Amino acid sequence: MPREKKPINKNLTIPNALSALRILIVPFFAWCFLADQLCWAIALLLLSGLSDLLDGFIARRFNQITELGKILDPFADKLTQGTVALCLAIKFPMIGPVLGLFIAKELSMLCCAIVLLKKHKHPGAAKWYGKVATVMFYVSVSAIVVMDAFQLLPIESFYVASYALLALTGVMMAYSAVKYFQIFLRILHSGEGEYEFDLPDEIHAKTIRERRKKPGRGKRVS
């Protein structure tokens, strides 16, 4: 009699593991950045950005998209971006107001997600414009850190370049924020069942593994 396969948690996927890795990187990045270990900070930021690109590709390519992953991915993005913005505001007070606006935008989006979760609705998956804004953010921050670490520009030019990079990133982020807020309103006022979502149940969601047939074990045809 074949042994019954035990159910496994369907959220145990590589993309979800990469999202968890990005969350774990956050405190190490903050420590390295504030301790002036800028090379390590840049390396961790690049690793975080690379994992962000990989998890989406792997999820789509190998059909490992999960409801939990649709929440973990943007949460990891927001936590990383918010921490980086806070670190930059501490180290570069001159650009604090711009980064303050960015943090306010991320907090408002986080509040929207919490509202939807409390109403047992799915906050919505990440969209292309959100990903583009994230990539622009990583590139801008990395450029600012590199210019400061190696003093590539005079101080006046450094601040001009920093403002320009943050302004371009801010425009893309503002666009993505508007689009995401429209999605939030649509989901909030929707009565359709497709948006129903229960986070505790989804975290423990399990599925039965399919038993693969071994070669030569099928029914013989005479």
Describe this structure in words.
The protein is an all-alpha fold. It has a single domain, classed as Up-down Bundle (Four Helix Bundle (Hemerythrin (Met), subunit A)). The chain is 70% helix and 3% strand. It has helices spanning 14-34, 38-61, 67-91, 96-118, 128-150, 155-188, 199-203; strands at residues 7-9, 206-208. It has a two-stranded antiparallel sheet with strand order 1-2. Helix 1 packs parallel to helix 3 and helix 3 packs antiparallel against helix 4. The longest helix has 34 residues, at 155-188. It is globular and about 55 Å long. The two termini are 25 Å apart.
Summarize the structure.
With 222 residues, the chain is mainly alpha-helical. The chain has helices at residues 14-34, 38-61, 67-91, 96-118, 128-150, 155-188, 199-203; strands at residues 7-9, 206-208.
Q: What labels describe this entry?
A:
2 strands, 70% helix, Four Helix Bundle (Hemerythrin (Met), subunit A), 222 residues, single chain, disordered C terminus, mainly alpha, two-stranded antiparallel ribbon
* Shape verdict: globular
Topology, number of strands? 2
What structural class results from the helix and strand content?
mainly alpha
Class, according to the CATH hierarchy? Mainly Alpha
CATH architecture: Up-down Bundle
Helix content percent band: 55-70%
Task: State the helix count.
Answer: 7
In CATH terms, what is the fold-level topology? Four Helix Bundle (Hemerythrin (Met), subunit A)
Taken as a percent bin, the fraction of beta residues is under 5%
Tally the structural domains: 1
Q: How far do the termini sit from each other? A: 25 Å
Q: Strand order of the main beta sheet, please? A: 1-2
Instruction: Give unreliable regions as ranges.
Output: 208-222
Rounded to the nearest angstrom, the radius of gyration is 22 Å
